[in-house]
Design brief:
By secondary structure, the protein is mainly alpha-helical. The protein has one domain: YbiA-like (Tetracycline Repressor, domain 2, Orthogonal Bundle). It contains 6 helices and 4 strands; from the N terminus they run βββαααααβα. A hairpin with a 2-residue loop joins strand 2 and strand 3. Helix 4 crosses helix 6. The chain is globular, with a radius of gyration of 15 Å.
Length: about 140
């Protein structure tokens, strides 16, 4: 893999959790995968409903997600939730799955300037979990045909 997509904007915006694609998850339909992920920081179905129905933008969802009381097991379960939500997004939107497959074997890196070294890479540092989830999903989609 000598080519890299490290900017989830413009033609690659569909890879970003802020991309405007609804996600049905936990018996709710969220405006974006960001909304769904931020909602899962709580165990409260009322909070999930709030994120699904009352939070207008993914930026606001992220901001609110940083202010709610986290479920006690969040650090242990957050990666699994992200994987499930991202998978749901691409399974529910075949056009996006096609675009993901069209990235071939290119390395996917959620490059950022805001210091997110868990889901992406900033200033050369980070775990890039979102990129890894996307690449694993791409591989699985390819195998499923």
């Amino acid at each position: 893999m000598d080519k890299v997509i490290d900017d989830f904007h413009d033609e690659n915006f569909f890879l970003d959790n802020f991309y405007p694609a609804t996600v049905s998850y936990m018996d709710r339909t969220f405006p974006t995968s960001e909304h769904a992920y931020q909602a899962m920081k709580s165990n409260s179905p009322k909070i999930w409903d709030w994120f699904a129905n009352r939070v207008p933008t993914p930026g606001q969802a992220k901001s609110l997600g940083n202010k709610i009381n986290l479920r006690c097991d969040w650090e242990e379960v957050k990666k699994g939730y992200m994987k499930n939500i991202v998978t749901a997004k691409f399974e529910q939107h075949p056009d996006l799955a096609e675009k993901l497959l069209a990235t071939g074997d290119v390395m996917l890196i959620e490059g950022n300037t805001w210091g997110d070294t868990t889901w992406g890479i900033c200033d050369g540092e980070g775990k890039n979990w979102l990129g890894k989830i996307l690449m694993e999903l791409r591989s699985n989609l390819r195998e499923e045909g």
